[in-house]
Amino acid sequence: MGHSENMATIKLPDPRLLKIAEIVNAAKTTFVEFELYEPQGNITKGGAVFSDLQGAYGLMIIIRGFDGGFGAPQILEDAQNLKDLMILYDAGAVETRMGSLEAEIKKGRTQQERDQMTRDLHTLEKFAKTLSDGGLIRNLELSDDEKKLARNQGLMTAKPWFVVINTEDEGDIPRAQDVKQTLSAEVAVLPAKLLMELAELPEDEASMFYEDMGLPPDIVDRTIRRMMKSFGFIEFYTGNEKEARAWLIPKGTTALGCAEKIHSDIARGFIRAEVISFEDFVAAGGYAQARAKALLRAEGKDYIVRDGDFLTIKFNV
Questions:
Q1: Quick one: pLDDT at residue 2?
Q2: DSSP label at residue 305
Q3: Alpha-carbon gap, residue 298 to 287, rounded angstroms
Q4: Largest CB tally within 10 Å, which of 6, 121, 270, 292?
């Protein structure tokens, strides 16, 4: 997806991980990392820009909320125009794929292949109808197979969206609810211009301004974490004196899925997971103390891991 010069690797800010690392006296602390890609080109021309984003898991949509020499902001209009462009792009992609499938079905294929392509064609027809009505594919109730097809097609309206409205100062709250309703997405308002100015100040002066204005110093970090949560991700933790580590997983992942995330050998030899919440781990003062107080829960491979769980996987290979 895209080009390296437009890609940045972002560490997911995580106060919980820092606390765990402190408790276990970890020699190494490993944060979750993800890649942020900024496409180049004229968004109003759609095609090339959206093609670059086909492999993205989700989209952060930035909307200008201040003049900045570009004229009065048109926040809601910009949101609606972008939505229309992505619907138009997806409609074209779906139509193209439908034509390809119809041609392939007529060729010499096995019955099993034809049946699968026919199912895909019916799903694409459902997508086309939704887009024609101005709807978003991610708002549909989809089966796992239908979701997989949407991902494989790289459709913009099937991806989760998170919207950031950049404003001039902390007092601006421009039409956030209207944008949320228009794009069916979480919306954050950031005083971008003010934050840029504060970034130029010495740290002690900037801290004073943050306090005077009632802005949390970690406002950007909070926004990033809010975005990942809106995309349906949670974190679990592992830790000992060698390393404290955060792991990013989709909500609904099992203990076995977490074991696979850590290492395939651990998943293959999975026996059980010893689980404790972050809050209980901190209150106990560490893993050994939690064990002594009988706070660890033994969970099987089908346990649905919760956000903030501290896991120790027992396995035998």
A1: 45
A2: P
A3: 14
A4: 270
What is the structure's pLDDT at 213? 72
31 φ/ψ angles, rounded to the nearest 5 degrees = -85, 160
Q: Which of 71-80, 103-112, 203-212 has the highest mean pLDDT?
A: 71-80
- Residues with Cβ within 8 Å of 155's Cβ and at least 6 positions away in sequence, in order, are 90, 93, 94, 127, 137
Residue 278 above 90 pLDDT?
A: yes
Q: Are 163 and 79 in contact (CB under 8 A)?
A: yes
Q: What are phi and psi of 261, to 5 degrees?
A: -60, -40
Beta strand 161-166 with 59-64 is parallel
Q: Model pTM greater than 0.90?
A: no
Over range 178-194, report the average pLDDT: 89
CB atoms within 10 A of CB 47: 13
**For 157-185, b where at least 16 C-beta lie within 10 A, e where not — what string?**
bbbbbbbbbbbbebebebbbeebeebbeb
Q: pLDDT at residue 54 above 70? A: yes
In the predicted structure, residue 225 carries a pLDDT above the cut 50:
yes
Task: Determine whether 209 is exposed, middle or buried from the number of CB atoms within 10 Å of its CB (0-12, 13-18, 19+).
Answer: middle
Confidence at residue 172, expressed as pLDDT on a 0 to 100 scale: 52
Rounded Cα gap, residues 210 and 207, in angstroms: 5
Which domains are delineated in the chain? 1-35+233-317 (3.10.20.30), 58-230 (1.10.150.300)
CA angle 217, 222, 228 (to 5 degrees): 160
For the chain, the residue count is 317
pLDDT-derived band at 203, boundaries 50, 70, 90: confident
